[in-house]
C-alpha cells in the first residue's frame, strides 16, 4: 500500500487511537487524528475516513451524512454498536464499511485495503515476478519457469493478493476478504487447504510462506 494514502482517524478514545495510529503508519498510511465531530468536519478527509460513531459532541452518523453530502471519500465506521439495525443505519448514512469494536488490527487493515481497491485508490501491481514465478494479476495467469500453471479461481485469488503485497506479510483476514469477500473465512481450514494446493501446483512451496499467527507472505527468502 502506498504511503501517499491519507487516513483521517476520528476517534475520541486516546487508548484506541494510540493503538491504531502506529499500526496504520507501519502499514504505510499517513494518519491525521481528530477527536470530535466538529474537528472531523473541519479537517481534510484525506483519502479515507475511519469514523467512530460515538463522539463527545455529536453522533457519528450525522458526521458521516455531512461528509457524504460534500465528498465521495470512502468512510469506514468504527464503533461499539454491533446490532444489525446499527449496521444498516451506518451503511445507509453513507459508510462504505462497518467495523465493530473490539476488532483485530489485521481485520481493520484488510477492510481498508478492500475499500481502497473498490474505490480505485489502491492499484495492484499488474505483474509480479519472484524467482521463476510470474503472476500476471490483470490477465489472471501464472507461469513457473515459463510453464503455464492452472489454478482454480480461489487459488489464483489467494496468490494474487500475496503477489500484490510481494515481500510483505498479508494477514489471514485480508486474504479472506480479497478471495472470499468475508473475514470469517480467515479462521476456516478452507484457506489452509487452498494454500496447500497452491504450493503443490506451483512446485515452489518455499515461496508461499506461513507467518504463524498472522498470515502469509510471498517471498524468496
Automatic annotation (TrEMBL):
Domain (OmpR/PhoB-type): residue spans on this chain: 125-220
Domain Response regulatory: 6-116
One Gene Ontology term from the biological process aspect of the record: regulation of DNA-templated transcription
GO CC terms: cytosol; protein-DNA complex
DNA-binding region: 125-220
Signal peptide stretch: none
UniProt-listed PROSITE patterns: OMPR_PHOB, RESPONSE_REGULATORY
Entry-annotated residues carrying 4-aspartylphosphate: 52
Record key words, sorted: DNA-binding, Phosphoprotein, Transcription, Transcription regulation, Two-component regulatory system
Pfam families found in the cross-reference section: Response_reg, Trans_reg_C
Entry's Gene Ontology molecular function annotations: phosphorelay response regulator activity; transcription cis-regulatory region binding
This protein's record includes keyword Transcription: yes
Protein name: Response regulator transcription factor
Organism, as annotated: Kribbella antibiotica
Amino acid at each position: 500500500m502506498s504511503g501517499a494514502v491519507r487516513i483521517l482517524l476520528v476517534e475520541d478514545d486516546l487508548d484506541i487511537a494510540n493503538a491504531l495510529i502506529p499500526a496504520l503508519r507501519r502499514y504505510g498510511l499517513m494518519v491525521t487524528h481528530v477527536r470530535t465531530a466538529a474537528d472531523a468536519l473541519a479537517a481534510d478527509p484525506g483519502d479515507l475516513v475511519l469514523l467512530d460513531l460515538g463522539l463527545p459532541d455529536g453522533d457519528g452518523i450525522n458526521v458521516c451524512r455531512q461528509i457524504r453530502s460534500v465528498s465521495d471519500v470512502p468512510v469506514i465506521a468504527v464503533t461499539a454498536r454491533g446490532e444489525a439495525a446499527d449496521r444498516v443505519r451506518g451503511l445507509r448514512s453513507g459508510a462504505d464499511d462497518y467495523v465493530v469494536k473490539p476488532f483485530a488490527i489485521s481485520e481493520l487493515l484488510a477492510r481498508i485495503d478492500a475499500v481502497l481497491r473498490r474505490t480505485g485508490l489502491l492499484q495492484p501491481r499488474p505483474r509480479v515476478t519472484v524467482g521463476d514465478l510470474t503472476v500476471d494479476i490483470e490477465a489472471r495467469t501464472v507461469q513457473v519457469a515459463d510453464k503455464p500453471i492452472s489454478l482454480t479461481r480461489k487459488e489464483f485469488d489467494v496468490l494474487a493478493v500475496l503477489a500484490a503485497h510481494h515481500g510483505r506479510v498479508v494477514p489471514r483476514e485480508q486474504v479472506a476478504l480479497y478471495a472470499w469477500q468475508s473475514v470469517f473465512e480467515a479462521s476456516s481450514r478452507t484457506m489452509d487447504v487452498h494454500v496447500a494446493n497452491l504450493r503443490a501446483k506451483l512446485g515452489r512451496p518455499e515461496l508461499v510462506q506461513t507467518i504463524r499467527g498472522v498470515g502469509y507472505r510471498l517471498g524468496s527468502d
